[in-house]
Design goal:
The chain is of the alpha+beta class and 94 residues long. The protein is built from four helices and two strands. It has a two-stranded parallel ribbon with strand order 1-2. The chain is globular.
């Protein structure tokens, strides 16, 4: 019997240098950790939990300008929902 395919999820991933710009760009900055280090700890924990659940996790870099353009092209608000859609879209296409 063939192994069931592993579900892939995209995890939004930020560079330390971009993090302040990302937070200031978002409509929901309060949903992101106030510092990069706090965000990184939470992101690594989320990644680990997903992997332990059997998911394949793809870290999807979110760059401020590229993400803003992607959202504008789709008429999306720059928020958590758009970040998740972006990450999932990039993970599925990559």
């Amino acid at each position: 019997m063939a192994e069931a395919s592993v579900r892939t999820i995209g995890l939004p991933w930020y560079d330390r240098a971009d993090y302040p710009a990302i937070r200031s760009l978002m409509a929901d900055p309060q949903s992101l950790a106030p510092t990069y280090d706090l965000w990184l700890m939470a992101a690594q924990n989320n990644e680990s939990v997903a992997q332990q659940a059997g998911l394949r996790v793809v870290r999807v870099p979110i760059r401020p300008d590229a993400f803003a353009q992607w959202c504008a092209e789709r008429g999306l608000t720059l928020d958590g929902s758009a970040r998740a859609k972006f990450a999932q879209s990039m993970a599925a296409s990559g």
